[in-house]
Amino acid sequence: MRIATLGDVMLDVIVRLEEPLAPGGDVRAATRAGAGGQAANVAAWARELGADARCIAKRGTDATGELVARELANRGVEVVGPIVAGATGVVVSIVGGDGERSLASDRGVAPTFEPAELDAAWLDCDVLHLSGYALLREPVSDTALLAATIARDRGARVSVDVAAWTEIRTFGPVRFRELLDVIAPDVLFATEAEWEMLGGAYLTAPTGVIKRGPRGATVVTEDARLDLAPVETNVVDTTGAGDAFAAGFLVGGSLEEAARRGLDAAARCIATVGSLP
User: Fold this and answer.
1) How far apart are CA 260 and CA 277, in angstroms?
2) Per-residue pLDDT tens digits for 9-48
3) Which residues contact 221 (CB under 8 A, 6 or more apart)?
4) What is the pTM of this model?
5) Which residues contact 261 (CB under 8 A, 6 or more apart)?
6) Which domains are assigned to the chain?
């Protein structure tokens, strides 16, 4: 199986606090920096779980872009997409003592990915996974729509991860749902907050997957609802857990097998610092 992802390749800077931040002061923390971004994370986990993986993203010619592309390549991920003068994105994840994280993102040149820069050959895959972040800004949103059309014409399934509810709130839930209607994804991933932001019972895909964090996951289809408990693990850092789950789900199998594989991957992810396997 080949899974292609489209979205961001970024430098992921994770700061795990050993004590609360003190304004004007200095506190102890454990840090990690490396490749990240939703599309990159899903591709890396898909490769870890046995699929061929390709990440399609626009990045800069800076040292950051070279670093993240090299790390992904070393993990077996094929990194493609335009490389232009400019800054590659950076996301900073602040992780508290309970493992929960808050993100601050600078997406760099990624949102400037234009449809004319898309190579149709990159869409030769079994599944195209679109990062919701790629739907929130132009012109990359137009590129994502084109990619979905090309991939589906070539026989691929299309999945979308909704991305941050805060971004959807700013973008506009109705407007975002209209984009989903155009894409018509086969699988839609969302957290509980994102699901509610889109209207709760609203389902734009044959399969909806609600990521419930410490309460596991729910898979919803037109005919069934499957509730699964999480895999017990030591929670160190929740950064990237949803991406690991999505990769596990997309690798294949029955709905229950896919969901359990996703929960296993998420449990592995949150047991260590960082978003990659």
Assistant:
1) 17
2) 999 998 988 888 889 999 998 888 999 999 999 999 999 9
3) 206, 207, 208, 255
4) 0.94
5) 49, 248, 249, 251, 253
6) 2-270 (3.40.1190.20)
